[in-house]
Amino acid sequence: MLLIHQRLAELYTIxxxxxxxxxxxxxxxxxxxxxTVYCWEMGRLHMEEQLAAQTSDxxxxxxxxAQLQKVRSTGKAPRRR
Length: 81
Description:
Strand content: under 5%
Shape: elongated
Number of strands: 0
Number of helices: 3
Distance between the termini: 27 Å
Radius of gyration: 17 Å
Largest sheet: none
């Protein structure tokens, strides 16, 4: 879980008891944007991982595994070549 996911959960919990302040709403939007980028990147990498497995391309699979680990731990994908 990334910190953005934890903060989204906190903001959601706060919003259940009171309206979010403008800075909290802005932070929520930033977290939602970061989460969207994270989800799309993970989806792309999982699809590439499947293609690599189906074509038995071991070096590509290893590269994708490293990219997946990077995205899981930092939330950011390495630059594409």
